[in-house]
Amino acid sequence: MTETAAVPASPPISDADPFAPEHLAHPEPLHQHLREAGPVVRLSRYDVHALARYQEVHAALVDWQTFQSGAGVGLANFRHEKPWRPPSLLLEADPPHHDAPRRVLRDILAPLALRRLRESWQTAAEELVDTVLADQGPEFDAFDALAKAFPLRVFPDAVGIPPDGRENLLPYGNMAFNAFGPRNDLVEADAHWVGNLSVWVNAQCAREALSEDGFGARIWAAADRGDLTHGQAPLVVRSLLTAGVDTTVHGLAAALYAFATHPEEWQRLRARPELVRVAFDEAVRWQSPVQTFFRTATRDVDIAGTRIPEGGKILMFLGAANHDPERWSDPDRFDLTRDPSGHVGFGMGIHQCVGQHVARLEAESLLTALAHRVDHLELVGPPRRHLNNTLRSWAALPVRVRPAG
Ligand code: OVM
User: Fold this and answer.
1) CA of 195 to the centre of ligand 1 (A)
2) How many Cβ atoms are within 10 Å of 332's Cβ, its own excluded?
3) d(CA 189, CA 187)
4) pLDDT tens per residue, range 58-96
5) Residue 21: what pLDDT?
């Protein structure tokens, strides 16, 4: 029998569980397998279709009409399952509802609006690196001392939340990113404190809790102008607190890991400090701190000859797309001479990370401060991963540095 292009074919099927510990710890073999199996692969465990090639992931990300976010961007289908918290007005919404919150946050987090933070963030980064070198000497855990410490030092102040309870930020984000996956052990492990963490985060979103000149206050001011409703404002603040901490912590860790394992690229950055922005984007491509997101088909749709049914969930492997050899030459190399633009580590299309300029400014501040003070860094022990259903995250990054002369 011959097949014709017009008849949707059955895609390859995989019974792999991308959310199993072995794949979360070391996703590359599964990514390669899925990319090579075909443009669309059916994941029998979860009854979803998976995309792991750049072309298909990119195409799905930019086609919000066909691949909606409003039914959730995790495995749970909000058409049938109650979300664990009221859906995000940005991440888990489609136009037209998505547009007003997006515009408000886009303006508040735009490069021009962040200029006022630049100097103080650079100073904070310099102080942090000086303190770490003075107090801990040449060997320390770069995850704890830098990747975790720096965002926690600058971001909550920039949002304008009070000092108490900030230790809840990372656990809350960790929980939110786990919640995009299946209800596995990682989700169950957090179940006992979902309630308390949510109560704390929601309390920080109230106008009275926020300082007068932070991102939070600016969101409330947008509501006063009528750009949002006052009912929407706290949920938009919640988006900052959910998506703005763990992502940057593990994004900075990705960059530090990259340089600790690629000394020639560290030399290149030190020789040409203006490469710092490309370096961070290349680290985001190379590690893809956000590994996956789902979409939901709004109609029966054919992708490369496979029929996806209306209402079906589609799992997009951002990290696999960012290593697709059809799109990237020598994709597994961390390489400051490549142009990483077009990577899907921040997504693509109308939902592309609205906070990316905040992340870039954090990275620029920290890496520049480090490049001025350290002429070599290397691992002194095995880095440890922390497992999360969505984030490629870290527990420890033991390094030794050589202070610059
Ligand atoms: C949100 C949000 C946005 C992006 C990622 C994310 C937990 C959350 O709007 O709450 O991950």
Assistant:
1) 18
2) 11
3) 5
4) 999 999 999 999 999 999 999 999 999 999 999 999 999
5) 98
Buried b (16+ CB within 10 A) or exposed e, 264-293: ebbebbbeeeebbebbbbbbbbbbbbbbbb
Which superfamily, per CATH, for 13-403? Answer: Cytochrome P450 (1.10.630.10)
308 in helix, strand or coil? strand
pTM higher than 0.70: yes
By DSSP bridging, strand 398-403 and strand 139-141 are antiparallel
Taking the centre of ligand 1 as the mean of its atom positions, its distance from the CA of residue 237, in whole angstroms, is 11
Q: Give distance in angstroms: CA of 396 to centre of ligand 1.
A: 24
Q: How far, in Å, are 91, 247, 257, 316, 393 from residue 254 at the CA level?
A: 23, 10, 5, 20, 8
Cβ(88) to ligand 1 under 6 A? yes
Mutating to test ligand 1, I would choose from 94, 180, 242, 293 the residue with most ligand atoms within 8 A of its C-beta, which is 242
Domain ranges of the chain: 13-403
Residues above pLDDT 70, as percent of the chain: 98
Q: Dig out the tokens for 334 from the structure.
A: 């961390």
Structural contact between residues 389 and 177, judged by C-beta atoms closer than 8 angstroms: yes
**Is there a contact between 84 and 194 (Cβ–Cβ < 8 Å)?**
yes
Q: Is the CB of 239 under 6 A from ligand 1?
A: yes
